[in-house]
Amino acid sequence: xxxxxxILWIAVAVALVASVATAGRWRLTPAQADDPATKLGxxxxxxxxxxxxxxxxxxxxxxxxxxxxxxxxxLIVNRQTKVPVSRLSRDLxxxxxxxxxxxxxxxxxxxxxMALARSRTKLEDAKHxxxxxxxxxxxxxxxxxxxxxxxxxxxxxxLGYAGWGAGQLEWEMGMDAWNVIPANTGIVFxxxxxxxxxxxxxxQDLNMASLWKGTSFFSR
Length: 220
Description:
Layout: E1 20-21, E2 45-48, E3 61-68, E4 71-76, E5 80-84, E6 101-104, E7 108-118, E8 127-130, E9 133-136, H1 139-147, E10 155-165, H2 168-174, E11 178-181, H3 185-188, H4 196-213, H5 216-219
Parallel strand pairs: 6-10
Antiparallel strand pairs: 1-5, 2-3, 2-11, 3-4, 4-10, 5-6, 7-9, 7-10, 8-9
């Protein structure tokens, strides 16, 4: 598993993640087309294929926030918990009183906290992911973002992350485990994460059906 560079992990109680709520229209790009490695990069979105065997990633939608020669890191964006951000107030003063839910970002370093934020201007001490999305990992920047009055439409916090060693994700792509979607802010901050995976997969099914209808077999 790759550990992201420049990450300041904030210790939180593991009990926070005891209860997890797992679960528009978007166009999917089939993972098996062309060289899968050329599709990957920061900001790209992974959608788990039906029947994904690993429960850590079954029915997940993941935005990649780091992709380089050392490995890959992403955050699961559709596993919303019932735990409010305010439960982090012992470690983050600005979390006090915040009622929006925490998300499970992945099975790695589950006691660490990160955030995704939308900003039209560059965020200091945050890493640009794509478009107007930044990933925040330092305590000072998390405090500042929460103090600014951000809400769930532009700011979400995650416990843990998804990590792959060098070449591991490419191997999974070769096994047809994921579909890849171009960077899309609307998917990352979708207002109904509990149904996001289902909607994306159903849209992929419709795309495939349309493709088959265009073949000579269906046009006879």
